[in-house]
Design a protein that fits this description.
Length: 468
C-alpha cells in the first residue's frame, strides 16, 4: 500500500524547532516533495532515521547565530528535507547550510575512539573517511545527550536504510554545509536482482547496488595495509572480498571457478569488490525478510532472501556488510606450521559476528590442535558455554546484542569461569579499548590487523601454562 510522504514529513518542523530552541540556535526547515508516495512500511520506517539526520543537521551542522554572523551567513540557518521520484526509486535529501564535515577531524576522532586504526585511516581517501561516521561507536561529541549522538551514532540510520534495501550517500563541503542522500525503492517487495554463484551455492544482490562486473584475473590486484587486497576503480581504492569458501561451505577448490568475476558494488561513498564464480542472470524477484531466527542475530552482509524457480531459498547479499566482514577479518594468508608435539588438544569457543573472521581464526586455532566451536555474538556464546566446557575463550569486541566487553564481564561474574583464559581479538587498537577489555576480565588483547602465527601460538601456550 502506497501513502504520501506528507504523513511523516508533517512531524519534522516541530522536531527541528525543539532542537533549535534547546541548543540556542536559529534554523528554519524547508520541505519539498511531500506528495510523493511510497510503500507504507518504508515510509513509517524512515521517521526515526530522518529525525536523527535533522537533529544532527542542527546540532552538528548549523552554527550558532553569532558564528554565522561573523562568517557572513544569515543568522538563521536553513535545513531542508526534499523528496524526488525517479522511476521506481525515491530520493530523499536532508540538507543543511552549516559548517560541513571536517574529514581530518573525523579521522582524528575515529582513531582516538578505536573505530579504526591509524594505519587504516592513513590509507583512506576522503570519501572512505566519511564512512567512519556510520561505524558503531563513532561520535564527535565528548558528552552524550538527548539531542544527538546518544552513544548510538549514524550506524542506526544506515542499518535502517540497508534493511529497506536502500542506500545512503554523503556530499559535504567545509563551511558550506552537508547533504545526505537516501535512495530507496517505492516498494521493497518486487525488485530486480543479479543472481550469481559462489562455489556450489546461488546468491543474489539487488541490481541497483551493483555498478559493474569485471573478470578478476584482468584486474591489477594490489596489497594494502594489513595484507588486504584491492584494485583501483576510477578514483576509488576498492577492497576485494573473497567469501566463496566461507559462504558456500566448500573446503577445497571444488566448485570454484578458475576465472572468477568481481562485482563492483556501491555503498555510501565508495565500492567493494565481491569475488563470485559465475554470473547467472538478472531477474525480477520478490524480496522476503530473513527468517526471524536468523534475523535476530543481525548477520553481516545479508539483507533478505528470495525463492528461486526450483523452490530453493536464495540469500540476498548487501555491499556494506560484505565490506565490513572483509575489513574486520584477519589476513587470509596467515600460515601456521606447528609441530605435532606443540599442538594443543583442547576445546576453544570462538565468538565473532563476521563469517570471514570466524572462518580464518577457526582455521588458525585448529592448526594449533584445538577443537573449535563458534558463536556469532556474546549471547550466543553464553548459550554455547552451557552446553560444553571450554579450555579457552576467544572473542571479538564489536558484535550485535551483546558485545565483547559485556560478554567477558558476564563470564567473569560466574565463579566457575573465574580462571578460564580469555583472549580478545579485535580490529580496534586504541589504548582505551585495550584497557576496557582488560578491565572487563580479558587475559590478553590482540589486534586482527597485526596477527602473527608465532605470536598466537606463544600467547596461547603462555596462558595455558599460567593456568596450570
Amino acid at each position: 500500500m502506497l501513502r504520501p510522504l506528507d504523513s511523516i514529513f508533517s512531524t519534522f518542523p516541530r522536531a527541528v524547532r525543539d532542537v533549535s530552541v534547546r541548543l540556542n540556535k536559529r534554523a528554519r526547515l524547508l520541505i519539498g516533495g511531500q506528495s510523493i508516495e511510497m510503500d507504507q512500511g518504508v515510509a513509517e520506517s524512515l521517521v526515526e532515521p530522518l529525525v536523527h539526520l535533522l537533529n544532527n543537521a542542527v546540532a552538528h551542522g548549523i552554527e550558532s547565530p553569532d558564528i554565522r554572523k561573523a562568517l557572513g551567513k544569515p543568522e538563521e540557518g536553513q535545513v531542508s528535507v526534499v523528496a524526488r521520484q525517479s522511476g521506481s526509486e525515491v530520493r530523499i535529501e536532508v540538507i543543511d547550510d552549516g559548517q560541513g564535515l571536517d574529514v581530518e577531524r573525523i579521522k582524528e576522532v575515529a582513531v582516538e575512539r578505536g573505530v579504526t586504526t591509524k594505519i587504516e585511516a592513513d590509507n583512506m581517501d576522503s570519501a572512505e573517511m566519511l564512512e567512519m561516521i556510520f561505524r558503531p561507536g563513532f561520535t564527535t561529541k565528548k558528552e552524550v545527550d538527548s539531542t544527538s549522538g546518544r552513544g548510538i551514532g549514524m550506524n542506526v540510520v544506515q542499518d535502517t536504510i540497508r534493511r529497506l534495501t536502500g542506500s545512503i550517500r554523503i556530499q559535504t563541503e567545509v563551511g558550506s554545509g552537508t547533504r545526505f542522500v537516501l535512495s530507496l525503492p517505492v516498494s521493497i517487495a518486487v525488485q530486480q536482482a543479479l543472481m550469481f554463484r559462489m562455489g556450489n551455492t546461488l546468491f543474489g544482490m539487488l541490481t541497483h547496488m551493483v555498478e559493474q562486473a569485471l573478470p578478476l584475473h584482468k584486474q591489477n590486484i594490489q596489497t594494502g595495509a594489513g595484507g588486504k587486497k584491492f584494485i583501483i576503480y576510477g578514483k576509488h581504492q576498492v577492497p576485494i572480498v573473497d567469501m566463496r569458501r566461507v559462504l558456500s561451505g566448500v573446503d577445497s577448490d571444488e566448485g570454484l571457478s578458475e576465472n572468477p568475476n568481481v562485482l563492483i558494488a556501491e555503498h555510501i561513498e565508495g565500492y567493494v569488490g565481491i569475488v563470485v564464480d559465475e554470473l547467472i542472470n538478472d531477474i525480477e524477484i520478490v524480496v522476503r525478510n530473513l527468517d526471524p531466527y536468523i534475523k535476530r542475530y543481525q548477520p553481516q552482509g545479508l539483507m533478505g532472501n528470495t525463492i528461486a524457480d526450483d523452490g530453493s531459498v536464495v540469500m540476498l547479499l548487501e555491499p556494506y556488510g560484505i565490506k565490513e566482514m572483509g575489513r574486520t577479518a584477519p589476513d587470509h594468508e596467515i600460515e601456521m606450521d606447528v609441530d605435532d608435539d606443540e599442538k594443543l588438544s583442547l576445546r576453544i569457543l570462538l565468538v565473532d559476528d563476521s563469517l570471514i573472521a570466524r572462518a580464518v581464526e577457526k582455521s588458525i586455532f585448529e592448526s594449533i590442535g584445538f577443537t573449535v566451536d563458534t558463536a556469532i555474538d556474546g549471547l550466543d556464546g553464553l548459550e554455547k558455554m552451557k552446553l560444553h566446557p571450554y579450555d579457552m575463550i576467544v572473542t571479538d569486541l564489536e558484535m550485535p546484542r551483546l558485545d565483547g566487553f559485556g560478554f567477558v564481564r558476564r563470564i567473569r561474574n560466574q565463579s566457575a569461569y573465574e580462571d578460564l583464559p580469555v583472549i580478545v581479538i579485535s580490529t580496534r587498537e586504541s589504548a582505551e579499548d585495550r584497557m576496557r577489555a582488560m578491565e572487563s576480565g580479558a587475559d590478553t588483547y590482540m589486534v586482527k590487523q597485526h596477527l602473527n602465527g608465532d605470536e598466537i601460538l606463544k600467547t596461547v601456550q603462555a596462558l595455558l601454562v599460567s593456568e596450570v
